[in-house]
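Discussion board: Methods & Data

I've been asked by a reviewer to show the raw model output for two of the constructs in my manuscript, not just the figures. I'm not sure how much to include, so I'm pasting the format here to get opinions. Each protein appears as its amino acid sequence followed by a line of discrete structure tokens. Is this the kind of thing reviewers expect to see in a supplement, or should I convert it first? Here is construct A:
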Amino acid sequence: MKRRQFVQSALMAAPISFITDRVMPPEAGKAFKVQKGEGRFHGHIQLKGVNANIQDVKVSGKDTNGALAIFEQTGLSPKRGVPVHIHPDQDEIFQVLEGEYHFLVDKQKFKLTEGESIFLPKKVAHAWIQISEKGRMSVIVQPAGKLEEFFVYMSSLANEPTREEMAQIFADHGMTVVGPPMQPEN
């Protein structure tokens, strides 16, 4: 009987220790709340270059030991798309909170409106463009990778980068540009 209890305890503890080692914040057991319209770190991150959108860090990779990051993006760049790119190590989930967006995933095109979500697997080329005048999305990246640092870097630029410079900035942050930005469909 004791052996059975030991085995059951060991099996039940194994997944929990795996999860806590992977996703517990550095200060385990400390919850936090991020207010609507605020970012956890960096305040509002106003991008330059790819677009002029605002990124708010809701959950940082610093909070999860790199396991995931969550951003809220306020779209200020209608009809301006991001380059087709690949995240070799990160899956992404976008949920449209307001407005309309078009996504290109490999060769498939998707139209998303408020309340709809899309899963973008790692190693698959993708891009998106804001179609509506106003837009807002929640973006989950797993694992966190260097996307938060990418946003911070893009906000620090003095001038809009050339395509070559943009490709290098993407590469420096763990992404590969494989095509031009999406354009609105006529």
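Construct B, same format:
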Amino acid sequence: MGGFETLQSGEQDERNCEFARIVGKSPALEVVLEQVERVARTDSTVLIQGETGTGKELIAQAIHNVSPRYGRPYVKLNCAAIPFDLLESELFGHERGAFTGAIAQKVGRFELADKGTLFLDEVGDIPLALQPKLLRVLQEQEFERLGSGRTHRVNVRLVAATHRNLDQMVKRNEFRCDLYYRLNVFPIALPPLRARREDIALLVTHFVEVFSRRMAKQISNIPQETLDAFTSYSWPGNVRELQNLIERAVIRSDNGVLANPLPTLDANLVGANLPNTNLVGPTGTFKDSQRALILQALQAAGWIIGGPDGAAARLGLKRTTLIAKMKKLEISRPVRKDDMDRLSESRECEPWLQPTAE
């Protein structure tokens, strides 16, 4: 979208530099960027939701960069990385002697972010006992340090992120409903990489440039077969997984040609639990890699093809497309001998479902 692709001079160049790290032109990503541009102008609380590795921290930074608070503090805290007994101190600070080991006064993240933006990553991991204090500071913009009765007032814009389903956590009484509603003022849902396959080639090119420059290696050729393998893969780890695999590929690359790490990866992931799958090795073809990917998705889905949790959805394919690929690749569901009689009596089983020996 124009607001993110057209850079202006001076300060706007610097403010937009973070958007250069958000690579892609898919419709799903465009929707997210439009939401970022719309909410960034306000002081409203933003809740970024998405699977692990989808780039929630990049979006949070982008919101700050194009907001009126740009140039003020941008403070980050991963709530899942801090032990429970230290998280309150990290958020609100403490006075000397407030608890054993508190040998000096500590300023918390809310104070550090005063007049700016505080990004709380993995906010779904905040313990229930601490959630009322977070709610208070969001509503009243005031708090007390541990061991102090003095109230501190702050002006902080909160951006929170989580890979958890907070709505379901509220129903299970694992997350306070009032805090959830306070966080969920403006939700942004990040799409998984499998929902924006149009961006995969751009991301591959981007990460190849980054890592080849970092490793002082010249990568001038990305084979189409390798790009096809990347595009067909389901990417359970999303952009972070792609980034790590490209780093591995650049390390393994010789003669300026990007290596394809996916066949070896798929063999490791699918493993020996799938009988008679003819898994691909490091020198396997794209057809072998595609077959292993489909088998992996089928196994993970319990051999259910359609539906929201079926193999087709995991691969980002239509049900009919996956069925056609299965027939072309001669993929059949393994069936035990004990089930042969039952299957022979059923006229409703899928035509490609053939019994095999154990």
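Answer (T.O., handling editor elsewhere):
This is acceptable in a supplement if you add a one-line summary per construct. For B, something like: Residues 200-214 form the longest helix (15 residues).
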